[in-house]
Amino acid sequence: xxxxxxxxxxxxxxxxxxxxxxxxxxxxxxxxxxxxxxxxxxxxxxxxxxxxxxxxxxxxxxxxxxxxxxxxxxxxxxxxxxxxxxxxxxxxxxxxxxxxxxxxxxxxxxxxxxxxxxxxxxxxxxxxx
Length: 129
Known about the structure:
92% of the residues lie in helices and 0% in strands. The protein is mainly alpha-helical. The termini are far apart.
């Protein structure tokens, strides 16, 4: 019988220890639930903020792509203009060379000057019509 009483006392002690563990686990559970209640709205706010930032990033990436296209088109126009300018410079150079050769050939300088002046003079009404 003493063994039964001893065993009952031991079981009571183990039961008390388990009840204390259960009470501690319950307190931790309540604390974690409170933290979850606090974290829930924070997570929702973070998700909302993340979504806004993701949308903003998408918009900015689109704008960057548009600006890159504009810059590329502008660069191509500049290069085309440079080519046109080079062609014009060569044409002017050829024209000046031809004029120089023409002026040093058989036409005397005063006659050439008069011819240039007449070429530069505005057209008269009879020449225009």
